[in-house]
Amino acid sequence: MFQPLPTASMSVGQLFADPHEFSVPIYQRPYSWSVDEAARLLDDVAYAAGLDEGQPIESDYFLGAILLLGNPVTGRSGELVHQLEIVDGQQRMVTLTILASALRDLEPLPTTDAAQRLDGLVRTVQGQPGKTSRLELSGSDRDFFATYVQDQGSCARAGPDISHDYGVGQRAVLDARDRLLLELAQFTVEQRATLANYICDRCHFVVVITSDIDRAHRIFMVLNDRGRPLQRKDILKAEILRAVDPPFRGQALRIWSDVEQRLGDEMENFFSHLRTAFGYGRQQVIAGVRNLVRASGGAQAFLVDVFQPLASAYALILSAGNPSSPAPEELRRPLVSLQRLKGREWVPAALHILSRVTDQTQARSYLEEIERAAFLMRLVCLGSSKRQTRFARIAAALSAETLPAPSELYEPSREEVRTISYNLRDLHVRNVQACKALLLRLNDEFQSDALHADPVDYTVEHILPQRPKSTSLWREWFPDSEQRIALTSSLGNLVLVSHGHNDRARNDEYARKKEIYNQARSDKGLLLITADVLANDEWRAGEIRRREAKLVSLLNHIWRLNLETARIDAPVV
Fold it and tell me: How far is residue 126's CA from residue 139's CA, in Å, rounded to a whole number?
């Protein structure tokens, strides 16, 4: 007899509540979402909750389908508890647990309504004897997850020291936790409370439950392996080509096919950038493009006036890092520099410039201003959601009938300039990727022929080591530990070397580091931003401060800033 499959649409607050308890079975892979994937979930939910400026609250946010396996058991007080194994949906459910824990621990008091509600998502009230975590990971990850995420206040706890042998899942959990804490700290207390309530009440899953493990396996295979999922580009292609007039369909198909061939797997991302470029970024991609088609005057006008020219601009952006790119030499440097930054919130603005401005010198001026905005937002340490909001304004200005002057696109506030000065004191600690991109950008000013150096090949090296040996000459040159720590993080103490040379240099004396750097020079792998330190016989506080002043002065010049540097002989505070 046919047995219907139990399914239900459940909010997060309903699912992560008694009598439900979840576990990740041992056969599942460890938690593996990247920090960008975790941050993207937060950004999407925050956007749906109306936390972006001017964004209305969406009625709900769908988190997809999950598959659970289990049966009711008797709890500690004789009540029924649904102990459920997560067959499909582990990454989303674990990330939501990390997000709820981070929100809870950022509450000013653990007794607030928001903190207690969030704690209820993370920890059980009833359940089995000795069990408090609502969701348990498998193996050694179980206690780690409870200690550094689920226990009250644990998100403020630093991870184990460097000697700890992290598993893949443990490292991913800590990285996701720390990234979400950083992003959430930029919201106000009221915004975090709004976000918590939205997650509990309006974010929902379609939940599929079975008690038969063989049936669960078959369902999992169907959900994950059968058929090719229909992508957004497929839906839009069918709608737009069907909507053009019959005499134009052949040309429309040729336009679409040419763009598909040029962009390949980037078509999905292109549509996301396209809707944002014209002010529809607050809508889902398909809805945003549909509105853009209507605003363009119909499918035919959209294909000719919008889709084709902006796709050509996007192809140019994608190819800029290739030395054989068709991108004009005039435009390559700012485009390559922008691509060194993770995140693509700047792309919609660049699409407008590359599709509208035919004069290459003028186009470069605009791209350099976009680059300036992108880097300065990183140096202020703005989260991805705030960067997207600000670049949406820039894109809106560039979509107007009359283009604004390049210098009118973005200007940091005085407070932001002060924040940049402060953050530059230890940028590598705050954001390793932004620090590397900044050093490469500075190197562009010294060495134009290194524009296409692959950032993956280089790592940031501290000349004055972070942990010099107790018997080293470094301790004699820098006897004051506070001064040494401050100077170690200084921009003037940072260079870029290959991974191999970094591994060899590490905590060595300055003379030995110079030998290693010189070897990199003979291998033609030494960047000039590193070579400039080799002229010094010693590397003391004066040398570090002089180099810091030189690099900051260069930043002031290329990005119209007025950052101050400490006097060469000033004490370190």
Answer: 23
Rg of the chain in Å (alpha carbons): 27
Which ranges constitute the DSSP H helices of 357-459? Answer: 360-380, 384-398, 414-423, 427-430, 432-446
Domain positions in the chain are 7-225, 232-422, 431-559
Whether 319 and 335 have beta carbons less than 8 Å apart is answered as no
Pairing of strands 135-136, 458-462: unpaired
Closest CA to 123 of 17, 31, 12: 17
Q: What is the DSSP letter of 261?
A: H
- Average pLDDT on 176-201 reads 93
Predicted pLDDT at 8:
85
The separation between CA 301 and the C-alpha centre of its own chain, rounded to angstroms, equals 35
For 86-100, the pLDDT digits (tens) are 988 999 999 999 999
Both tokens of residue 474? 């470094």
Decide: helix, strand or coil at residue 1.
Answer: coil
Q: Which is it for strands 458-462 and 494-498: parallel, antiparallel or unpaired? A: antiparallel
Exposed (0-12), middle (13-18) or buried (19+): which is 396, by Cβ within 10 Å? middle
pLDDT, tens only, 363-392: 999 999 999 999 999 999 998 889 999 999
Residue 567: predicted pLDDT: 46
CA distances from 396 to 53, 370, 389 (A): 14, 13, 11
